[in-house]
Write the structure tokens for this entry.
Amino acid sequence: MKDEKKIENIITLKNITVSFDGEQVLKDFNLSIHDGEFVTLLGPSGCGKTTTLRIIGGFVTPDSGDVFFNGCRINDLPPHKRPVNTIFQRYALFPHLNVFENVAFGIRVNARKDARRKKGAAIRERVEEMLALVNLRGFEKRAVATLSGGQQQRVAIARALANSPGVLLLDEPLAALDLKLRKDMQVELKNIQKSLGITFIYVTHDQEEALSMSDTVVVMDDGDIQQIGTPQDIYNEPRNAFVADFIGESNILDGIMHHDYQVETFGRKFKCLDAGFAPGEQVDVVIRPEDIDIVAPEKGHLSGTVTGVTFKGVHFEIIVDFKGFKWLIQTTDYHPVDSVIGIKLNPEDIHIMRKSAYSGMFGDYSSYSEEFDDMADPTIDLVEEGEAAE
């Protein structure tokens, strides 16, 4: 019976539309989330992911559409009555309360509402259980101001879980942590979710976080879902050029499918593993930087000139100019600037996508990303859409 429960939808959003100040943030948005999943809403700033989370939490009311929890419509249910808890970027801990009282706060509030709720020794037992879960046993009497950022985040997690919510909402909770601690907390959050078996809905713009923690990734842009799938599916089988570019690094080229399992790009025909395209159909060809084999120029399918080299620790990232189009290649071998190299492409290294509105926007490493350009434009507001609404 437990396995059957896990495939049920605990959260369903149907035909959700939201606008702020006349600008549409979500457009006829539909999403179903299974019970017990770790789901990540992934996308750039302003794509609508935080708004989606806040709609589930009850902090934003959609202009149209419905929100369901276990099949029951909850549009009119206020946040404190929804079976969810939220962890924000700013942990919102009470500075005048110690660690124990911060974690116990929600339990005490509910105990006053319902005489059957935990009291006294039962509250202490629950708090200690939660602190043990987040590896903060022995910190009960510590002032929260004396804790590190990672410890404060763990207190926030313990407090959010203390009342046994059906769903935990996490709005970029690792954003304020340094890189090493962030990676450690990614593992810890996933372990907590597995041990409790409840649904986590996580918002981030960090692709590595999404791939390392999630059962399901929902890639969003401009108020729409671009693709839903497992981390492996999203990375290995991107649906369009936006997903291919946003999830990891990609060389995205124009191509023509001559017939099943054969594509032409850069004036050469290559074997591939893709089928189902019309003969002569224009397509996007995706080649991941780590999948490219470097060979001597005379032995390669293509040859080009190295124009940039960056040492990344475990590998080099090199930019190579092929007939004016710059590719990114990851290799453990050093190739200096101005050297000429050849590359070989195997059928399993080539992924074919249908043309989309994003075609031609990504893939050439002679240009910066759109978000990098936006950072230099003072007319563009890069504040996350949920923060603006708040």
